[in-house]
Fold each of these.
Amino acid sequence: MRLEHRVAIITGASRGIGRAYAERFLNEGASVVVADVDDASAETSVSELAALGPVTYVHTDVSVAASTEACAQAAIDAYGQIDILVNNAALYGDWNLADQSEEYLRRVFDVNLHGVWLMTRAVAPHMVREGYGRVVNQASAAAYNYVGTRTSDGFTGLNAFNYQQTKRGVIGLTKFSAGQLGAYGITVNCLAPGVIDTAATRSVVPQSVIEQLAGLQAVPGVLHAEDLTGAAVYFASAEARFVTGQVLVIDGGKYMPA
Ligand SMILES: NC(=O)c1ccc[n+]([C@@H]2O[C@H](COP(=O)([O-])OP(=O)(O)OC[C@H]3O[C@@H](n4cnc5c(N)ncnc54)[C@H](O)[C@@H]3O)[C@@H](O)[C@H]2O)c1
């Protein structure tokens, strides 16, 4: 029960990795606010998770400032405080790789990067008032991949740099927020997972490729959402009070950034 009496907002927790965080945080004694745009999926998850502890769904679009502020207020109204924010929501399963337009590039940045800033900005005053807070951001080991996808049929124009570079931005934002908020007892850290076997991944990457990539790791094997939850709990716990601005890559040792 490492998160007993704590209140956590977890974005994108309707499914996949976010849902695994919600389940683990409830098992560690936290009250959880699931913040997501997918009402049907979130309501199903919340009704299934309710047996584990106090959990509420708040419809939240992380790319809209007013929505993030309403989410923070709803958490306060429901549980009286906000101790933990997990910025997990992103266009990943819903990411449209084929759309290389400028408009869509801006959309991916709005959700994956600006959404992390907006949610952090929305909860920060509540954490500052308490003099305590834990922010855990979800980047990706993709942030270290500068090649991205290339077409085999010659040059068709410069591709939109979107998913990978939004995650690179999340790493920078983690360090910026850690610097800004540390004096108020708030730590901000970041997880950078490799390929995780979620429904979202399976919808874009064939199982054979998931297994092939797993063989390239220092520690071979397919990673699952549950392989991330222990690290998220550590960053979110009181014992990590002097750990801030850090990035933890969890990918079996495929990328080992300095
Ligand atoms: N699965 C992987 O291999 C992997 C690897 C590295 C990082 N990640 C990151 O982990 C996170 C979760 O991944 P996943 O596999 O569970 O993906 P997913 O697509 O299943 O989950 C994303 C969640 O975010 C929600 N969401 C999307 N846009 C939103 C918005 N504007 N506001 C609020 N919620 C929104 C979705 O409804 C969904 O619940 C993402 O940040 C992803 O980039 C995933």
Note: The beta strands are 7-11, 31-36, 55-59, 84-87, 133-138, 186-193, 247-250.
Amino acid sequence: MPELPEVEVTRRSFADLIAGARVQGVHMGKPLRWPLGCDPQALVGRTVQSVARRGKYLLIHLDQGVLLLHLGMSGSLQFAAQLPSRGVHDHFELETSRGRLRLHDPRRFGAVVHAEAIDDPVARKLLGGLGVEPLEAGFDPLRFHEALRQRRASIKQVLLAGAVVVGVGNIYACEALFVAGIRPTAVAARLSRARVQRLHAAIVQVLQQALQAGGSSLRNYSNADGQSGHFQLQTQVYDRAGEPCRACGRPIRLLRQAQRSSYYCAQCQKA
Ligand SMILES: [Zn+2]
């Protein structure tokens, strides 16, 4: 599943190239997770002003309105002057004066939704519940601690829920908790300020590393300039059940939390 670093790497790969492009055509494939919410032909003639990101949504700002694009479970974007003819899994394509932006999404959990503005009800419904951006100044260790003190769930579930901080998906949550020495099952509200500060630093570090590595290696993922994102980032714990911990040598353990796999080292993450 594309996570925040992959979405951000995707954004950077085409944002500057598409800025200023005029929409010349819109092609729709099979239905995605949510309907577009406007007549596709109404987008023709619009100009792309910029591409921003909020959580895992790409925000394609037009001179009128905005497209909120989510890659879902298996989506990937390509942007190029020329693309091969559309295949059965290509469900959205913006034909522009600078090239074609194509969403390839075999499982169709992705979506492209039109909103009149970023603060209109349609956009607010999708973006309204999102926590702070982990790579921006608003992600502050003391405020993070304050927010966690209100949460009785496990720290792993709180991170995945995205209401406190967005974009810390399963891989990055497991890795950051290892770096911080915190067990995934620890109750969020009981973490001391010092441990939350370590977790804060670990989240930033793990996400920055992933961004630098170009996003994680995901089966269906390729960034919009057609290069595959390879984050064969050496994970510390994620997907390493039974393998030796890189710090202490004991086997990495696997447990299920809310139907997600949590990987941890019982020695390095004692509580
Ligand atoms: Zn260990």
Note: The first helix runs from residue 4 to 18.
Amino acid sequence: MAAYDVIVLGLGGMGSATLHHLARRGVRVLGLERFDLMHEYGSSHGLTRIIRLAYWEHPTYVSLLRRSYELWRELERDAGERLLHITGSIDAGPRDGKVFGGALRSSELHGLPHEVLDGAELHRRYPGYRLPRETHCLLQPEGGFLLPERCNVAHVALAQSHGAEVRCREQVLDWDAGGGRVWVRTSRGQHEAGRLVVCAGAWASRMLPELDRLAVPERQVLAWLQPTRPELFELGAFPVFNLEVDEGHYYGFPSFLMPGFKFGRYHHRGEVVDPDAWPREPDEEDEELLRAFARRYFPDGVGPTMMLKTCMFTNTPDRHFILDLHPEHPEVAIAAGFSGHGYKFCSVIGEIMADLAQDGRSRHDIDFFRLRRFTTAG
Ligand SMILES: Cc1cc2nc3c(=O)[nH]c(=O)nc-3n(C[C@H](O)[C@H](O)[C@H](O)COP(=O)(O)OP(=O)(O)OC[C@H]3O[C@@H](n4cnc5c(N)ncnc54)[C@H](O)[C@@H]3O)c2cc1C
């Protein structure tokens, strides 16, 4: 008999949530993480992650988001810790652009409370913002941010309290599966279980070569600048944002846990990277790209640089997630390719992956996220 029912490979955002959901269902689960429980080599560090309901990427995400909010609240309660802050969210850009247009479409389709403002009205309400008057801005009151490091730790600690076993600094080298069993070979030994859930983030294709062109790591950079008028960027005075402008697509947060207004550019410099050998130290070009954006649209936020951090997106060709069973090994479930917008979903994806590991299917409709969309005409 296998020592475990399920092994979860990778304990970042998705793996820690999966571990938690399995353990609280009474499943005998082992979580394996190649680095420390908290580390800065992957995709879930940097103090804050946006959560928002007016989902411009596609309206299909909204029902998952509702469940996600519910589960984050549950996690807060069980962990006895504040993990989610509501600030409202701004999705802004040209009227027909993907951000404003998509957010409006999701809001209308799902009956989400929202307001549409121009750049001048947005500045009147939230003076940190200085967008051109003609910018279309959708304000959704339930947007906010999560604390990813704390959420990951809370998921793992609660999983442990339900009996989960966790081993950090133990790298999975390879795995095999067949006849309802999986075998995992690691830097420290071998483990056997009934099921394997792969949540390897930027390393997904190392564990699953079939994802080679479907889950591609990309370097990102985040900046925290000390505002010259800090009161305009404080929690309560500044909603999180997604903003499509001439220079590209940016996102940002109020100052929190750092004396700095935090923001980044989606697909920063378009650098596809090897997750084991990439330039992790930000340079002057990274910094100037970000400061130039802030000078134009958030001039009161541009004081000295407080911190720069790199991080990785793992992009799919259509920028939608991959949630599925392995095409040849039904014992293996895959959560990959979160394309820079996955964190807010960790709580519900943990539930989905636990369903897949236990029953081979999920209570949530995940057809949109199946692998076959890349391999068949459908
Ligand atoms: C700069 C930046 C900003 C972002 N902003 C947002 C945002 O505002 N809102 C939002 O919703 N999302 C955002 N995202 C995206 C979100 O953070 C990611 O989608 C999410 O964190 C991905 O989680 P993951 O579990 O797939 O990856 P990770 O959290 O990186 O976890 C993967 C884990 O697997 C481990 N691992 C890999 N290989 C092995 C192995 N062989 N053996 C053992 N362990 C292994 C890794 O060490 C890692 O800990 C952002 C991402 C970045 C980089």
Note: The first strand starts at residue 4 and ends at 9.
Amino acid sequence: MHVFVTGGTGLIGPAVVAELLGNGHTVLALARSDGSALAIETAGAHPLRGDLADLDSLRAGAAQADGVIHLAFRHDFSSPDALAQAVAEESAALAVLGDELLGSDRPLVTVSGTPPVAGRVSTETDPVPTEGPVGGRSRSVMAVLDLASRGVRSTAVRLPRTVHNEGKGGFAGTLTDVARRTGVSGYPGDGTQRWPAVHALDAAALFRLALETAPAGSCWHAVADEGDAVRDIAVVIGRRLELPVQAVSPETYGPLGPIFATDQPSSSAHTREALGWNPTHESLLKDLENIQP
Ligand SMILES: NC(=O)c1ccc[n+]([C@@H]2O[C@H](COP(=O)([O-])OP(=O)(O)OC[C@H]3O[C@@H](n4cnc5c(N)ncnc54)[C@H](OP(=O)(O)O)[C@@H]3O)[C@@H](O)[C@H]2O)c1
């Protein structure tokens, strides 16, 4: 397939681009800067200059592709307003991508998040929360899944809280960044809350499988580690950075504080069985050993 990818230059995107190229696909990837265009070319894909806010560029990318994988998101957590704007930008972008594919039965694979479910491990059939600071992202995903009835093979790959590679990425990456800045390896709440995780290379394999084979309207969980206690994550970060480990207020993590404090283990049993997905790369706690002081 010739695949249009947004977000091909972030933490996860390059793994997805490499996975596609390594499995016989060609890739056209959105690039919003010269640096990103160069990175895409170096990876062996073709850049398409544009931006999530430039809807014509998205329409052009989808129009010339056999399928679309959407990953791009402007991670601006500096204030609730900034986050709301990023959510609205993505929502408009997804609407255009879906519109371009209507009636074509081409796949549109969008990124989502694993849902928290009080008192148990979440599964692929649990709904994603549509309230809260990133609830708008879930509503955009649901709109994409609804396109299944209008001739789009739309699917969602739900990522866990931490998608990691070489010790970086996701919520654990944020804990590391805050630890470097504050001199304390903190954890919100009592630290017993669990976050699921996956290696970016394993997540990339699931994006490819979903693109190639997932039925319209389906959701998948890219979960390799069902849930690590956040305190255990902070302990590895503290040891690697030689910093003290202690509880901190959830507000330390800005608008996402309440999500950071929530217990949210998640399962991928159905995904593994139905799509034959088999994560093989190192766990989050092992990968965090790659953090350099
Ligand atoms: N990493 C995780 O643990 C995790 C967990 C759950 C969900 N997710 C979701 O997975 C997706 C990819 O995550 P990531 O960790 O790879 O993110 P990332 O490292 O922040 O990369 C973001 C990507 O989006 C692109 N982008 C941002 N704003 C854009 C804009 N306005 N126009 C065009 N492109 C834009 C970036 O391009 P440039 O390179 O040009 O900046 C980059 O390719 C995101 O939707 C994220 O929310 C990630």
Note: The mean pLDDT is 97.
